[in-house]
Amino acid sequence: MGKRDYNRHELTDLQIRRIIRQRRRRKQKIKVATRLGVIFLSFILMVSLITFGINKFFFSEKGAQKRGIIFVDPGHGGNDPGAESSGRREKDDTLRIGLLIKTHLEKKGFKVSMSRTSDEYVDRKERAEMANEVKAQLFVSLHRNKALEGKGVEMWIPSYNVSKDNANEKLLSRNIMSEIKKVGVSQDRGIHSGVLYKPKEDYEENKYTNMPSVLIEFGFISDKEDNKLFDENIDEYAAAVAKGLDITFASLYETE
Predict the structure, then answer these.
(1) Which residue from 59, 64, 212 is spatially nearest to 136, judged by alpha carbons?
(2) Catalytic site residue 133?
(3) How many domains, in total, are found in the chain?
């Protein structure tokens, strides 16, 4: 029956029951429609969240491979602790900062390969061969210095014996050093080629890599100031290295 004013005194019991049933049916339809609407909206929201998650996963992973591959090498590891001082081990510091560099590089869209992600031994030449195998476009090896006296950051690149033109290595090391110095260092010890006291030889990480490479001596593990700087600014240092790599990569591989 349509909506109209009823004179309830003129309605029979049967007609009243019909009116009540119709109102109940309308209320029930409204409830059902409301529930269906809520279910539909929930479904749309769930599909949207799933789609967003899938896109984020796949596109972020693919995006990480679009820019290129950078190899990060935390020096030493396993039965090779590297330099040690007052219970502190080089292999631990290099792994800590190496993993942070990886995170910062991935945020910039790079695929990152590492020589190690845990406390394990890897031969120095093998590290270079691993980078060659994955066709990395830049290589950075992380170390810390030790001496009776000495402080500051220095970098080592291949000598002219390995590369007749190590301009790309110079560019890479300068960009990284520039960014690190913005964070703050006790001393800029410069960029060198070859090996300390043996300028005609090279560190194996630099000697056998097929891509521009640099070995960073991240301060002296034997110096309190360098250790304090390292611990307090480790994430900032990692971001600085990542930025230096990013700038160099863009300069070498992303110019038109």
Answers:
(1) 212
(2) no
(3) 2
* pLDDT single digits (tens) 122-156: 999 999 999 999 999 999 999 999 999 999 999 99
CA distance 24 to 30: 10
Helix (H) or strand (E) holding 135: none
Q: What is the pLDDT of residues 202-223, one digit of tens each?
A: 999 999 999 999 999 999 999 9
* Rg from Cα positions in the chain: 32
Of 145, 143, 155, 154, which is closest to residue 98 (Cα–Cα)? 143
In a shared domain, residues 57 and 74? no
Write down the pLDDT at residue 41: 81
Q: Of these residues, 154, 179, 217, 256, which one is catalytic? A: 217
Neighbours of 30 (CB within 10 A): 10
- Closest-CA residue to 132 (of 243, 207, 61): 207
State both tokens at 168. 């790309």
Report the interhelical angle of 224-232 vs 234-253 (nearest 10°): 70
Q: Are 202 and 162 in contact (CB under 8 A)?
A: yes
Q: Is residue 106 domain-shared with residue 184, that is, in the same domain?
A: yes
Give a yes or no: residue 1 inside a domain: no
Rounded to two decimals, the pTM is: 0.75
